Structure formats: C-alpha cells, structure tokens
Amino acid sequence: MQDLLRTVAYFTSTGQSLSAFDVWQYLYQPVKSWTVGEVALALEDARALSERDGRFVLKGHEEIFDNEHHMYLDSDRKFRKARRIASMVSLIPGVRAVSVCNSLAWESTKEKSDTDFLVVCKPGHLWLARFLAVGPLILLKRRPGERSRDPVDFTFFVSDRAMDLSKLAIEGDDPYLAYWVASLVPLIDDGVMEKFCNENEWAYRILPNATQRQVARFRRPRAWSMPFTISSEILKSSEGIAKRLSEKRFPTQIREQMNKSSHVIVNDDMLKFHVHDDRVQIRDNWKKLYEQLS
Fold this sequence. Notes:
The chain has helices at residues 2-13, 20-25, 36-44, 63-89, 126-140, 175-183, 192-199, 201-206, 232-249, 252-257, 279-291, and strands at 18-19, 49-52, 55-58, 95-101, 115-121, 152-159, 185-189, 264-266, 270-273.
C-alpha cells in the first residue's frame, strides 16, 4: 500500500488526480511488483484517499477534482497551438524531435501556464535551432513575462549525443526529473526519441511501469521539410553567428547562473535555461505530504 500512497501523494502535491491505471503506470520505486487489478483493489480500500469518477487524490485535497476539467480544456487548446509551433520548428535544419513537456504533457495547465518544449537536434545545430525557434516568439511577444495567456517557452535544447539527463538530477531523490522524462510527448520525432528513452533508462528503473508516450493521433502534427538543401558550410557559419548573437542577449540571471548547477547549462550540446528550478521544493513538499500519512 505504501507504494500506492507514495505515488498518489506526489501527484496530489502537484495538483493532479490519478486513475488506478495511472497509479500503476507511474509507481515510484515500488518495493514489489503490482498488477493493475491489484492496484485498483488496493485503492478502493485506502482510507487515506478520496475518489471521484474513478480518480484518486489524498483526502483533504478534493479541490483538485474541481479544477481538472478546466485544466484539461485549457491543455487541449494549448495542444492545438503546440502542434502548429512544432510543425514550424520541424523546418529548422538539424531538428530531430520536438516534445511537449512540463504541465502541458500532463494535460494540467492553466491559462497562464507556459507551453514548454524539449528540442532534440543533430550536433552542431543547437544554437541555430534555438535562435530560429525563439526569434519569432520575441518578435510576437509570446514568451513568458511578455504574454499572460498561453506563453510559449523553448528553454531546453539537447543534441542527440548528449541525451542522458541523469547528470542533471539534484542530490538525493529527484522525482520531478524522472517523471519529466517519462511524461514527454513527442509531437515531431524522426525516431530519435526511442534512443532518448534508452539513454534515460535510469528514469524507467525508478518508474518501472512507465513507457515512452505517444501523441494521440488527433494531436499529431505534420512534420515539414525545407524544399531545398542548405550547404554544410552555410549551416556551420550560421551556427556560429546564432551563438554569438544569442550570448549577447543573455540576461543577467542566465550569465550569473550558467554552468554553475544543473539549472542553467550552456554549451554546444545542451542549452537549458531553467533559472527558477523548483525541484527541491517539489520533492520536499511531496515528502512532507507523504510523511503526514504515517
């Protein structure tokens, strides 16, 4: 039972309910093997949980049920916009995959929530990809802080030779990172996301029932391609220009934090700009909530 309560406690702490199948799929470091049926029966007998329409939260947090319908509708609207953005980003040379992450991947957004993306690129294409993806958002004032409704954020780019994210984990438990890896929803994928999952097998050891997620057919965008080929010399030169221009625009917070922790990483294989990294707080809130059950 503690396996189930620990998992439900995590999602309750992040404002989400779970079905019995969800609990089974996202069991966090379970000490025993469970079937979906066993999970469903155990949840029905769990006095620490509240249930509505087949979904579960910790008792005392029933307001989550009231909010979820609105969050799903908001997420559905954001997904439609994310499809169009992903299709356009697929035109950028070197882009191999565009995945939705964070709250939108969980279909748990509010109007002011960011639409966040992870972009996987071929080596030597990160800076140009970010420059071309972020540039239009700057011009259209669609980035967080510039737009209160449906802001869009490209804060994580990684090359296909640096996809193992285990080195980004915070000291001690890092449930957020494991769930983040397992929740990615690839909108554009040339097949590299299977390799991404293999290289992040550590996350699937923590979440042994989780599998690579697939985007629903009705949300699947069309990948576009350039009608002409750009020479490698031009791409290499453009990459250098994009890097210099991007570095000049770095705000003070980025300059002060980059490469000093796993929050902000700036190199030719990874561009990660999570200035406000709440993973420690998320973990501590989860553990506090779970310990209250004991």
